[in-house]
Amino acid sequence: MRMPVFPRTKRWIALLGCLPLFSILFAACGENSPSILNTAGPVAASESGLFWIILWISVVIFILVEGILIFSIARYRERPGMPNPFQRHGNMTLELIWTVIPTLVLFVILFFTIRGLLQVAPENEPAPTAAQPRIEVTAIGHQWWWEFHYPNYNVTTADTLEVPVNATIHVNLFSNNVIHSFWVPALTGKTDLVPGHENKKWFVAEKEGTYLGICAEYCGTQHANMRFNVKVVSSDAFKSWMSTQQQAAVSPTDSLAQKGQELFKNQCASCHGIVGVNVKQYYDTQKECTDAPGGKANGTPECQLGPNLTHFGSRSLIAGGVLDNNADKCNPNNPNLLQECNLAKWLKDPQGVKPGNDMAIGELTNDQIQQLVAYLEGLK
Amino acid sequence: MATRTIGEHTTVTTTGVRRKRFSESYIGEWITTTDHKQLGLMYLITGFFFFVVGGMEALLIRTQLALPDGKVLSPQVYNQIFTMHGTTMIFLFVIPVLSGFGNYVVPLMLGARDMAYPRMNAFGFWLLLLGGIFMQSSFLIGQAPNGGWFMYAPLSELVAGHAFEATPHMNADFWLLGTTLLGISSITGSLNFVVTIFKLRAPGMSINRMPLFSWMILVMSFLLLFALPSLTVASVLLLLDRHMGSHFYQYGNGGDPLLWQHLFWSFGHPEVYILILPAFGIISEILPVFSRKPIFGYTFIAWSGVAIGFLSFTVWAHHMFAVGLPSIAQAFFATSTTLIAIPTAVKIFNWLATIFQGKIRLYTPMLFALGFIAMFLIGGLNGAALAVVPFDYQITDSYFVVAHIHYVLFGGTALAVFAGIYYWFPKFTGKLMDDRLGKWHFWVTFLGLNLTFFPMHIMGILGMPRRVYTYPANLGWNDLNLMASIGALIIGVGVIMFMINFIKSLKYGQPSGDDPWDAFTLEWDTTSPPKKYNFLEIPVVRSRRPFYDKKYPEHADWKSVVEH
Amino acid sequence: MSQEQKDHVEQSVQAEESDVTAAPLNSTPSPDSAPVEKEPVAAEGTTTTEGATKRGTTGKKRTRARGRLVNAEEVMPRPSIWPLGMAFSIAFVLFGVIAGPIFLGIGVVLLLVCCLGWILERR
C-alpha cells in the first residue's frame, strides 16, 4: 500500500520568518563581552584571525551543500506521473572528486593550523628586548580564585593581574588542587593549570585597558565565579604600582580602621595574610605549597588558604570576581554600607554571595563589618 | 542434546498436567524474553525514557541559565544536573536507542532468526536498565555525579592535590560504577552484534551486500569493544584511588591527572563515533527508499565508516589541546583530526548524490533524514573549526563546543533516531505513525534546535565558558541565553508532540501492511510486526537490495550490477 | 562465505529436528498439546523451514512420516530468567564495592548462583 501524498505547503514562509530571529542574534553581541574577536594582542589576534579564514571556508561549503540539498528536495520531489528514477549505484570519478577536493581544502586549513600553532607556542616566546621587556608571572589557580605571583619582584596579588603594555608576559601556570584553565579572551587562548605539570604560556598586550580573564576548565562548585582582571597599564604606571605592592601594608591611622586591623588579626589571620601584620613577606605558592618534598601544609603562614590581602584596596575584584570592589561606595560612613558596598555584602554573607566557597568568617556585627571595610579598603 | 532430554522432564508436573510457565505470564514474558525484537523494543523504550529524563535535566539547565544570576538551582545541584544530562544522554539514551534499532533490525536485515546469543542479549539489556536506574537513583540521596560527564581527576578524587577536598561523597562512585555496568552491557551487546553479523547472514548475503545500517552497527560494535576497556580501566583506577588509597591520578605521589584524560578520551573519542555511526547507517537506509534510488556509492559509504572507525582511535588528544601537550603532539592530533573529516565529507556527498535525481517522497522519516544532513553539516563544519588548534585554544571549553556537540548529537543522532522510529514504527507495530503530526514534530524540533544551539556558537565567541551555573548580567550574554532557553522549551514541545503521536498511533494508527514504504531491504520481506521466527523461509540474497529484486524482478539489481 | 552461511543454517536446523524425533522417546508432551500460541511453521501456509525444502535427512523424513511439523518455538531461543538475575547480581557486586563487604558478599553469592543457574538451565 502507499501513503497518500500530502499537498505541498508554503513552508518556506516559516523559514523566512526565522531569518529575522537570527539577525537578532548578531545584533545581540554585547559591548562588554570578553569576545575573542576583540583582540588586544598578537597571540589572540593570531588565534582569532584563523576564525575568519575558517568562517569563510565554512560559509562557502555550507551554502554549496545546503544549496544542493534544498535544490534536490525542490526539484526532485515526487510529482504525480513522475517516472521512476534511473537506478544509479555510484560513480568512481565523482567519488574521487569529492574525496580529493575536501582533502585539499582541509589541508589548506591544516597549514594555517600548524603555522598558527607554532606562532603561539611557548617555545616561540619572543626574546626580551629593551622595547619589549619580559615580565614573569605565576598564575596560581585556587578553588575558586586566582592568585598572581611576580617571582622577580616577590609580590603576590589576587584577582587582578597587572601588567605593562607591550611587554612579553610569561605566565607559569600552577595548581596544587584541581585542574583550572587560564583564559583571557582578548589576549590569549586557554592553557590548563594541571597539578604536577609545569605549563607555561606567553602573551603581549598592545593596548592599555582592563580585560576579563576566565577559568575555563570545570573546577568544582564555583567554577562559574572564578574570574580575574588583566589590567594593562603603561610601563611607568606598572613600575609605580609594583613599588607600592612591594611595601608592607600601611598601618591604619583612624580608630575605625585600627579596630578593623585588630578584628583582622583575631578573625581572618588564620587564612589571610597581610605583610607587616601577620606575615613577614609574600610567599611563592608554587614553591611553598606543592605536594613535592619540602612543600608546606595548608594553613601555615607560607601556605594560607585565602588570598593575601596586603594591598586589597587597590584591587578591582572580590573573591574570584564574584563582586566588583566598588571602593567608592565603601566609605565606612556611608549609611547604606551594607546595601551598596560589595565588600560589606561579601563579609556579611560570603556563603550567600558565593555558595560553597571556603570563606568561614562567622557572623559579624554591622559594626565589625564597618571596621573591616574601613581597614581593608584603606590598604591601597 | 542430553540437557534437553533431562530438562524436558522438569516441565512435567507430578499431576501430569503441564504447569503454565513463568515465562508465559505477562510480566514473565517481558522479563524472561530472549527474542531480539522484544529486547530491541525494550532497549528503545528504555532509551526513550532516559531521553525524557535527560531532556528534563536539560530544561532545568536552560531554566537556570535563561536569565543572568539565576537562582533556580544551587550551584551544587546545577553541577549534578549538567553532569547527569550529559551522562544520561550519551550512555542511557543514544547508546541504548541505537542498540535497540540494531537489535530489532539487524537480524531482520540479515535474514537471521535471532541474534547469535539471545540470552546474552537479554543480559546486556538488563545491565543497561539496572545501570541507568542505579545512576539516576543517586538523585534520591542528593549525591548525583557532579564532576561533568568527563569526570576529570583530580576533581573526582576524594582529595585533590595538597589535601584539598574534591568529591568527598559518593557522587563520583555512582558515575564510575554506573558506567562500568553500562560498559559491560555494551561489550556484551557489541560481541553479539559482531558474531551475528559475521555468522548469521542469509545465504548469499556477503559482507559486501549487507545493508549499510548493519555495516555501521558492525563498525560501532568494534569501536565499543576496543574503546570501552579504556574507560573501564580508568574507572577502576579512580575507584582504587578513592577507596583503596592508591594515587594513580594524584601528582603528589607520582600519579598524573593527565592519565585520566588520556584514558578517558581514548575511550571518549571513539565513543563520539559510536554515537554517530549507526545514525549514519539509519540515514543511509532511509534516503534510498524515499528517493526511489539505490544508495549512491555503497562501497564508499561503508568503507568511509570503517575509515572513521580506525581514525577515531588516533584523535583523542584533540579534546586536550589546552592541557599543554608538546607542539609536535598537537600538530599530530590536528592532522589526524583533519583526516577524519574526509570520510565524513565523503558520506555527506554520497547522501546528496543519493537524493539527487531521485523521486523524493517527503514523508516524516525522510524529512528527519534530510534534516539530519542539514544539521550534521553544521556540526561537521564547526567541528572542523575546533580542529584548528590555535582557534581551539580560544573556544575549547566555551559554549562553542556545546554548540558543536549538540549539532552533532541532537541535530545529528537524535534526528536520525526520530527518523528511524518513524521509519521502522510500521515494522514494530504494523501501524503507521501520523504523518501530519510527525511533520509538525519535525518542524518544531528543527526550529527549536536551531534556536537553542545556534546562539551557543556566538556565546562561545563572546567568551562564555561552559559548565557555569550562572553568569553576570553585564557581559552581553543575556539575550543569547534567553533565546537558547526558549529554543529548549520549543524542543520540549516537539518531544511532547512526538509522544502524543507515538501513543496515538500505537492505538489508532492506520494499518501499514507489511511494506508501507516500498522498501529495499530484507526486514520488510516478512510480516509487520514479524513473527517470533522472523522468516518462514530464510531468503536467498543475490544483491544489495534483495527485497527490491523480489518485488521488481525485471529490474533486479543482480541482473545489471556487478558487486565486488 | 555464502557457502559457509548456508551450512551453518542447515546444521542448526538439523540439530533441532533430530531433537524433535528424540522427544517422544522421553515421553515429553508433544507440541500438539502445547498452548495455542505455539505456531507450527507449516501451518502458516507455504512449506516448512528452509532445511526441509532443501534436504531429505533421515530425521526430517521421520518427523514427516509421523505428521509432525517443525515447531517454530523449537527453532527459536527459549525465554530465560537468568540474564536478569545475572545482571542484578553484577550490579549488586559493584554496589558492594562501595557499600561494604556485606553487600559484596551477598553479591558474590548471588553471582555464583546465577552463573550456575545459567549454565545448568536446559536449552
UniProtKB/TrEMBL annotation, chain B:
Transmembrane regions listed in the UniProt entry: 41-61, 81-110, 122-141, 174-200, 212-240, 260-283, 295-316, 328-346, 367-389, 401-425, 437-462, 482-503
Enzyme class: translocase
Catalytic reaction annotation: 4 Fe(II)-[cytochrome c] + O2 + 8 H(+)(in) = 4 Fe(III)-[cytochrome c] + 2 H2O + 4 H(+)(out)
GO molecular function ontology, one term from the record: cytochrome-c oxidase activity
Protein's pathway: Energy metabolism; oxidative phosphorylation
Top-level taxon: Bacteria
Presence of the UniProt keyword Nucleotide-binding in the record: no
Alphabetical UniProt keywords: Cell membrane, Copper, Electron transport, Heme, Iron, Membrane, Metal-binding, Respiratory chain, Translocase, Transmembrane, Transmembrane helix, Transport
InterPro entries in the cross-refs: Cyt_c_oxase-like_su1_dom (IPR023616), Cyt_c_oxase-like_su1_sf (IPR036927), Cyt_C_Oxase_1 (IPR000883), Cyt_c_oxidase_su1_bac (IPR014241)
Enzyme Commission number, as recorded: 7.1.1.9
GO cellular component: plasma membrane
BP-aspect Gene Ontology terms: electron transport coupled proton transport; oxidative phosphorylation; respiratory electron transport chain
SUPFAM superfamilies, per the entry: Cytochrome c oxidase subunit I-like
Membrane topology: Multi-pass membrane protein
Residue ranges the record marks as coiled coil: none
Location of the protein in the cell: Cell membrane
Residues of the Cytochrome oxidase subunit I profile domain: 30-542
Family label: Belongs to the heme-copper respiratory oxidase family.
Job of this protein: Cytochrome c oxidase is the component of the respiratory chain that catalyzes the reduction of oxygen to water. Subunits 1-3 form the functional core of the enzyme complex. CO I is the catalytic subunit of the enzyme. Electrons originating in cytochrome c are transferred via the copper A center of subunit 2 and heme A of subunit 1 to the bimetallic center formed by heme A3 and copper B.
Name this polypeptide is given: Cytochrome c oxidase subunit 1
Source organism per UniProt: Dictyobacter vulcani
